[in-house]
Amino acid sequence: MSTTTITASVTIAGETVPRVELTPVAVDLLRSLWEEHGPLMFHQSGGCCDGSSPMLFMADEFITSDQDVRLGQFDLAPAGDPAQPLDFWMSAEQFNYWSHTFLTVDVVPGRGSGFSAEAPRGVRFLIRSELMTTMTPFAGTDQIEADAEAPPAQATIPA
Amino acid sequence: MTVYAVPGTPGSKVTFKSRYENWIGGEWVAPVKGQYFEDITPVTGKPFAEVARGTAEDIELALDAAHKAAPAWGKTSPAERAAVLNKIADIIDANTEMLAVAETWDNGKAVRETINADIPLAADHFRYFASAIRAQDGDHAQLDGDTVSYQFHEPLGVVGQIIPWNFPILMAVWKLAPALAAGNAVVLKPAEQTPVSILVLLELIGDILPPGVVNVVNGFGLEAGKPLASSNRIRKIAFTGETTTGRLILQYASANIIPSTVELGGKSPNIFFSDVAQEKDAFYDKAQEGFVLFAFNQGEVCTAPSRALLQKPIYDSFLGDAVTRAKKIIQGNPLDTDTQMGAQASNDQLEKILSYIDIGTKEGAKLALGGERADLGGDLTDGYYVQPTIFEGHNKMRLFQEEIFGPVLAVTSFTDYEDAISIANDTIYGLGAGVWSRNGNVAYRAGRDIQAGRVWVNNYHAYPAGAAFGGYKSSGIGRENNKLALGHYQQTKNLLVSYSENKLGFF
Questions:
Q1: Interface of B with A in 227-246 (CB under 8 A)
Q2: How close does chain A come to B301, measured CA to CA in Å?
Q3: Which of A84, A116, B65, B178 stands the most exposed, by the fewest C-beta atoms within 10 Å?
Q4: With 0-12 CB in 10 A as exposed, 13-18 as middle and 19+ as buried, what is B503?
C-alpha cells in the first residue's frame, strides 16, 4: 500500500483546523529516520544559512518553552500500530508572522541542515505554504501598499 | 574580462584533491569510521571531491590535539602570535586568485566577489587581530594605599567553531583570527555544503601554526557539529547559522556552563528617504546601487538588504529606476569576472527560495522582476541559479518576515519618519539595516532608532575589519570583526594583591 499524506492533530487551544501536514515522501523518510533514531520532533527554524526550514531532532533534544507554539502532532504509525507521535514546534515570535499559513512538510534533494537528522541521507525537509481560509491574513495591518493586490480571500486548505 | 578555467582543467588556478581528510594535529587524518561524502559545486550541480564524513570519534581526536597544543600556544607572547597571523595574511594575499577560484567552485558565488572581497578581507582580518592583540592592555586599579587589583587576559583554552557556507573562508577567518590572537586552540567544523575551500587554505597555512592549534573536522551537523557543540572539552562555542540551531547550541552551552556567541540571521530593512531623489546625481546613483545590493552574493548574506522601504513620494520613480537597474544584473558562469550573480549554494537552498517566491505570490505580493529559476544552459544548466526577484507588498507578509537567503527583495512604502522606523523594527531580527538620506540629522536619528547591530548609513554591505558586527533581538549574541571579539575568547584573571604587612583583624 502506498504511503499517504498525514495531517497533524490540532494542538493549539481554541482551534479546530489543522495547521501542518506531511507529504507521502516526508512520511516515508520520517518512518525510516524513526527506525534509526527513535522518537523525533520538528522545530521550524528562522533565518540564515540552513534556516527558514524545519529542523528534525530526537524528541526532547531541543528544549521547548512557553516561547514556543506546538502547531500540531503527527502520528507516523500505520493504522492499528502503536502510536508514533511527532510534534511540530515553532517559536512564538515567528508564529506571529506565520499564523495565517498552512504548512506542508516536503522533502527535496539537498545537503546540510544545521543539526537536522535527515542531512546524511542527502535530502532536506522543506516547507510549502498555503493561505488558510480560517485565518485572517495580516490582521491589524492598517496600511497595505496600494500597488499590491489584496490577498486572495478563498484559498483552500489542501486535502 | 577573464574567465577562469574550471578547477582541474589546463590553466586552472586550482586543482582539487580527489579526497580530503580531516586536519588534526597538523596532519591529514582519515575519518575513524572511514566514511566520506561528495562535495558538489553549485556552479554545475556536479560532485568534484570526496570529503571526510567526521563523527564524534574524529571530534575527540581533534579535541585531543587541541588540548595538547593549547597550553604552549596560550603562553606564547602576543608578538609571536601576531607574527603568525601576519604571516598567514601574507600567504593569503600571495594566493588570492587560487583561493578565490577554489571558493567560487565550492560555494557558487561570482569570482569577482571572492577576488575583491572574500579573500582580501580574510587577509585583512588576520592583520587586524594581529594588531589588536598587541595593542590590548590589561588593567589595574589601586583600591587603597596597599591594595591593587590587576586584571589579565587569559585564553579560554580549547574552543569550538561552527562555520556557515555563505562565505566559507571569510566566516572561518572571522572566528579563527580573534580566537588564535587571544591564544586559544580551535576545533572548527565547516559547513557540509562548502567543506573544501577552508582545507585549501589549510594546505597553505597549516605548517605555519603549531600542530593542533587549528583542527578542522568535516561532516554533517548531527554527526560532527553536535558532538563538538555539546562536548564538555570545549570552553566556548561560536556559531553562525539559523535560529533553531542557535538555540540548540545555547542549550548545549548551558549544560556545560560555557559561553557561546551566536550570529543568527536577519531580515534587514534598507530605508530610502525622499530627499535621496531630489537630484539625479552621483548620490542618487549610489543609492540605486544600494537598493540593488539585495542581489550581492546571490542574496546569501545574513545582512542582505532584503526589505526595501521607500518613502511614498519617490516610491514609483525610485522603484522604476531600480528595477531597470536590477534587470541589468549579469548572471552567468561564476568563474567569469564579468558575472555579477552566480549560483545559489545548494539544491535545497534553491528549492527553499522558490518556495518563498510561491508563498509571496499566494499572499498577494506583486512581482516586479524575476520570480523563477534561471537556466543558464550548457554546463551550467544543472547549476542552482535563480533570477534576481523583486516583490511589492507589505511588511506583514511572510516574504517580509522570513530570511529567504536568496536574491529576493520585498519592497514596501512608508509615509514619514515614524512609519519608517516602525516598519523597520517590525521583525524578530536585528542584524543589519541601511539608511539613505542627504539629511545627516535624519540619517543619524534613524541609524540610532533602528534595532539592529549594524546600520549602514549611505552605504551598504561593507565589512571592514574594525567595525563591530553582530545582532540585536533574535539575530544573536556577541560581536565579531572588532577588538571586542577578543573578549569572547578570553578569561579575565583578577589578581587582588595586598602590599600591607597588617592583618585584617577579624580572627
A1: 229, 240-245
A2: 8
A3: A84
A4: exposed
Residue A145 and residue B413 in contact, taking contact as beta carbons nearer than 8 Å: yes
Residue A70 amino acid letter: R
**What is the separation, in whole angstroms, between the first and last Cα of chain A?**
19
> Which residue segments constitute the domains of chain B, with CATH numbers given?
19-264+475-493 (3.40.605.10), 269-457 (3.40.309.10)
pLDDT score for B2: 94
pLDDT for residue A142 is more than 50: no
Q: Is A47 an 8 Å CB contact of chain B?
A: yes
Question: Contact B366/B391 with Cβ under 8 angstroms?
Answer: yes
Q: Show residues of chain A in contact with B356, CB under 8 Å.
A: 52
Distance from C-alpha of B223 to C-alpha of B228, rounded to nearest angstrom: 9
ipTM of the complex: 0.93
The pLDDT tens digits of the residues spanning B262-312 come to 999 899 999 999 999 999 999 999 999 999 999 999 999 999 999 999 999
- 8 Å CB contact of B243 and A124: no
Chain A CB contacts of B366 under 8 Å are 147-149
Q: Is the dihedral of CA B482, A46, A23, B349 positive or negative?
A: negative
Q: Is B263 a catalytic residue?
A: yes
Flag whether residue A151 sits within 8 Å of chain B, measured between CB atoms. yes
**CA nearest neighbour of B393 among B310, B452, B323:** B310
Q: What angle do CA B406, B409, B411 make, to 5 degrees?
A: 165
Ramachandran bin of B37, using left for φ above 0, alpha for ψ from -120 to 50, beta for the remaining angles: beta
Q: What is the pLDDT of residue A113?
A: 77
Which residues from chain B sit within 8 angstroms of residue A114, using beta carbons?
A: 221, 225, 241-242, 244-245, 248
Nearest by Cα to B492 from B121, B120, B138: B138
Within 8 A of A47 by CB-CB distance, chain B residues are 242-243, 264-267, 302, 402-403, 405, 429
Domain boundaries, chain A: 6-131
CB-count burial class (<10 Å; 0-12, 13-18, 19+) for B507: exposed
User: In whole angstroms, what is the distance from residue A87 CA to residue A59 CA?
Assistant: 8
Interface contact flag, B355 A126, Cβ < 8 Å: yes
> Strands across the sheet with A101-109, in order?
A6-7, A20-22, A101-109, A123-131
Q: Which residue has the cell 587582588?
A: B496
Q: Does B416 reach chain A within 8 Å, measured CB to CB?
A: no
Band of residue B25 on the pLDDT scale cut at 50, 70, 90: very high
Choice among B192, B263, B300, B403 that is catalytic: B263
- Nearest CA among B100, B271, B74 for reference residue B180: B74
